[in-house]
Specification:
Layout: E1 2-4, E2 11-13, E3 18-24, E4 30-36, E5 40-46, E6 53-54, E7 59-65, E8 71-78, E9 81-88, E10 96-98, E11 113-114, E12 120-127, E13 130-137, E14 144-145, E15 153-159, E16 166-171
Antiparallel strand pairs: 1-2, 3-4, 4-5, 5-6, 7-8, 8-9, 9-10, 11-12, 12-13, 13-14, 15-16
C-alpha cells in the first residue's frame, strides 16, 4: 500500500505485499486492511508506515472502523465458521460475533458500514440475484432489512453523515457470449 500526498505528488510506501479493503480510522492516523501474505489476516498500519500490526488470530476480510474509532467490524473465520465479528481497535478476540448472510463482494471498499451513531452495521445480502441492505444492531438484536428491492444488485452504498439518507449504485451485470468462427 502507498500513501499519495495530493499537495506535492509524493508517494510513501506503507506496506509490502498485497493489502485490500483498506479502511481509515476516524482520526486518519491508521489504515485497517486485509493482508494477503502467508495467511490472510486483518492488520493495521500507521499512515506514516512501519510494520503492520496483526489484529486478529484468524482470517479477517472487509474491515470497517466504528465512528468512534474503538471497534472494527469485519467478515471473519474462526474455528471454521464464517460470520461478522467485532473486535477492539487494538485487536484481540471478538467482543461480538454475528451469523450473517453477507454478500460476496468484488469492490475495493468494504460492504460493511457502521451507522453514524455506531449502534449498528449495514451490509448487503443477496437472495435470488437481488441485493438488499440489512442492518445488524451491535447490541445483539435480530438483523433488520433496510431496503426492499425486488430486482438487481447493490454494488456500493453509503449513508449520509447524519444517517438520514442512503446513496447507492444499484443495477445489473451484463455479459454476452459470442462465438466467432473462421477468424484469422
Amino acid at each position: 500500500m502507498f500513501r499519495f500526498d495530493i499537495s506535492d505528488g509524493s508517494e510513501k510506501r506503507l506496506t509490502s505485499g498485497v493489502g485490500v479493503w483498506a479502511a481509515f480510522s476516524p482520526d486518519g492516523k491508521w489504515i485497517v486492511f486485509t493482508r494477503y501474505a502467508d495467511k490472510v489476516s486483518l492488520c493495521k498500519v500507521s499512515i506514516d508506515g512501519g510494520e503492520p500490526i496483526k489484529l486478529f488470530d484468524g482470517a479477517g476480510l472487509m474491515p470497517a472502523v466504528s465512528p468512534d474509532g474503538k471497534l472494527i467490524a469485519f467478515i471473519g473465520i474462526k474455528d471454521k465458521k464464517w460470520g461478522m465479528s467485532i473486535i477492539p481497535f487494538d485487536g484481540g478476540e471478538p467482543v461480538k460475533m454475528f451469523d450473517t448472510k453477507w454478500q460476496s463482494y468484488k469492490g475495493g471498499k468494504s460492504p460493511l458500514q457502521w451507522t453514524p451513531d455506531g449502534r449498528a452495521i449495514n451490509y448487503p445480502v443477496m437472495n435470488d440475484n437481488v441485493s438488499n441492505i440489512w442492518r445488524q444492531p451491535i447490541d445483539g438484536g435480530s438483523p433488520v432489512q433496510v431496503t426492499n428491492f425486488t430486482t438487481d444488485q447493490i454494488f456500493n452504498f453509503a449513508y449520509s453523515p447524519d444517517g438520514s439518507q442512503l446513496a447507492m449504485s444499484h443495477g445489473t451485470f451484463n455479459s454476452d457470449v459470442v462465438l466467432i468462427e473462421n477468424a484469422k
